[in-house]
Specification:
InterPro entries: Glyas_Bleomycin-R_OHBP_Dase, Glyas_Fos-R_dOase_dom, VOC_core. By secondary structure, the protein is α+β, with helices and mostly antiparallel strands. The protein has a single domain, classed as Roll (2,3-Dihydroxybiphenyl 1,2-Dioxygenase, domain 1), CATH 3.10.180. Helix content is 15%, strand content 41%. It has two helices and nine strands; from the N terminus they run ββαββββαβββ. Strands 1-6-9-8-7 form a five-stranded mixed sheet, with helices on one face. It has a four-stranded mixed sheet with strand order 2-5-4-3, covered by helices on one side. A hairpin with a 5-residue loop joins strand 3 and strand 4. The longest helix is centred in the first third of the chain and has 10 residues. The N and C termini lie far apart (32 Å).
Length: 130
């Protein structure tokens, strides 16, 4: 019963690879992504290390026990509706007060953004073009 309401239009990893975002423990990390962020696990692998591919709509990303530092990685998600994205996360149980959306400029593009830090330490920035 997938109820994806917010479209992730694009994503850029902070480091190198949105398909290999580092986590210390895959099994304890996955429930946050399924319950709060609305992803579904579509593939699991144990080689060369434990990893999982997560999907939300057409968008996919991966978590991996690859020895990387989760506090130094994450993704920027371009979404179609920032307020709806925040409301969806809150409805799914995100325990984060709404800090004001921030306005940021990257290159020539203006964004409204907010941040979510997963329990595994990965940081996600949700942004909508202005």
């Amino acid at each position: 019963m997938e109820t994806t309401t917010v479209l992730i239009k694009n994503a850029w990893p902070y480091q190198e690879d949105k398909m290999n975002l580092p986590v210390h423990n895959l099994e304890t990390a996955i429930p946050f992504y399924e319950t709060i962020m609305g992803f579904q696990v579509v593939v699991r692998d144990d080689t060369p290390y434990k990893s999982a591919t997560l999907s939300k709509g057409e968008f996919q990303m991966g978590l991996a026990e690859n020895g990387g530092d989760p506090t130094q990685d994450g993704c920027f998600f371009e979404v179609d509706d920032l307020e709806k994205a925040f409301a969806e996360l809150k409805a799914n149980g995100l325990e984060k007060g709404l800090s004001e959306f921030q306005r940021q400029t990257h290159g020539t593009t203006e964004w409204n953004v907010f941040f979510v830090v997963a329990p595994d330490g990965l940081c996600y920035c949700y942004g909508e073009r202005q």
